[in-house]
Amino acid sequence: MSKISVIDELTHKIQRARESLFTGILAIGTDTDVEWFLYFLVGQIVWANDRSHSKRRWHRQFLKNSSDLSQKNLKEISYQAQNYKSVAQLVMNQKFSREHFSKIVRGCISEILFDIVHSATLSKQTANSPLIYKVSPRNGANFPCIGLRREPIWEQVQQDWQHWQQAHLTEYCPNLAPVIMQSGILQERISLDAFQDLKRWANGQHTLRDLAIRTQQPLISLTKALVPHIRRDLIKLASVKDLELKSKPQSRSQTAPAAKPLPPAAAPLPPTQSPGLVPTTRVTKNSPVVVYVDDSPADSQTMAKIFQDSGYRYVNIADPIQALTKLIELKPQLIFLDLVMPVINGYELCAQLRRVSALRHIPIIILTNNNGIPDRVRAKVVGATGFLSKPIKAKRVLKVAIKHLQPTPVASPKPTTRFRQLSPSV
């Protein structure tokens, strides 16, 4: 594996684009998906986007950089806030300030570049997964992007990332939303004013970046202030969906053509049709034992149905305090742990189990609604074998069971690369 850093990789790609006066799109992702798009016009980055928070980011940059616009103009523009091309057209028609537009666009580009570095750095630390780059040239005459003043955006992002690391925030993603988990304890630890502010904003609807804009605090200072409470599980960071911005109804001629659909990938067969997926024998004394530690009766029942008639012995442990003793008695071949439980959470329990020699090498899979990279990193640190996101799906659970319990894995063809078709969001 190459030891070149993400910063060096991106510097090389951006420098090559500058030298070749490249016009087009550089898509960046993994071997299965495109995550980010960088748009170049004659060698200069003029726009950037991703598939997750494009509207939220654009709206956030509007709030940050358009505070002096009239309410009438803001209301008009807010309808267009999900579409770069629409606002660029307003700029060309002198209905929107080029200066404001440039600030908003530069802010979006900076966030995307930071996210690429952050995500790829964590990915390299956990799975050493390299990024894949795909270049798609465009005809400059038909390219809808507007040139920006020559400013060192990439150089500034590198400084921002260095400051983020120096503040020991590498494992925290600024696109996650804080949620208060234990308000009573938190209220005792901070001032009343601070608690009221947190209660208002830390509701799982606003990302750390959103909160920095709304509270007019530097992102690093805000995040550092929350970290002690996050580490004590008084606050958690959760994934949040993109905004759903209202849009004016458009005529058919004004509506942008929809992106071409992706060719359907070969869908895997359901478990009952895939050879060797699930044992069909009855449960015996020698059947593999699967344990699920969770205090939720509903989730436990879901898991029980999944393993019903599978040939595995399924056991639920509802009390995490008793889990260690019972697991030593059961000697399971696979353990599923829920992350959020009373008294002790899944991370803490996993770390305890790894300190017991009899359980040290048993596969442990953590189940949670928190599916961000920081959560995966923390799961790896405490010794978890894998990570499954909720809601619980039979197909994913059985796939994990087969991987860890089937003595001779069924041969399967290598997954084909599904690097998605470029979908310029401009």
Brief summary:
By secondary structure, the chain is of the alpha/beta class. It has 15 helices and eleven strands. The protein folds into three domains: 6-166, no CATH class; 177-238, Arc Repressor Mutant, subunit A (Orthogonal Bundle); 281-405, Response regulator (Rossmann fold, 3-Layer(aba) Sandwich).
Write the topology of this structure:
Blueprint: H1 6-19, E1 24-29, E2 34-41, E3 44-50, H2 54-65, H3 71-78, H4 84-92, H5 98-126, E4 132-137, H6 153-166, E5 177-180, H7 183-189, H8 192-201, H9 208-215, H10 219-231, E6 235-238, E7 289-293, H11 297-307, E8 313-317, H12 320-330, E9 334-338, H13 346-354, E10 364-368, H14 373-381, E11 386-389, H15 394-405
Parallel strand pairs: 7-8, 7-9, 9-10, 10-11
Antiparallel strand pairs: 1-2, 1-4, 2-3, 5-6
Helix pairs in contact: 2-5, 2-9, 5-6, 5-14
List keywords for this structure.
single chain, 426 residues, alpha/beta, 3 domains, five-stranded parallel β-sheet, four-stranded antiparallel β-sheet, 14% strand
Task: Give an overview in words.
By secondary structure, the chain is α/β, with parallel strands linked by helices. It folds into 3 domains: 161 residues, no CATH class; 62 residues, Arc Repressor Mutant, subunit A, CATH 1.10.10; 125 residues, Rossmann fold (3-Layer(aba) Sandwich). The protein has a 5-stranded parallel β-sheet with strand order 8-7-9-10-11, sandwiched between helices. A 4-stranded antiparallel β-sheet has the order 3-2-1-4. A two-stranded antiparallel sheet has the order 5-6. Strand 10, helix 14 and strand 11 form a beta-alpha-beta unit. Helix 2 packs across helix 5 and helix 5 runs parallel beside helix 14. The two termini are 35 Å apart.
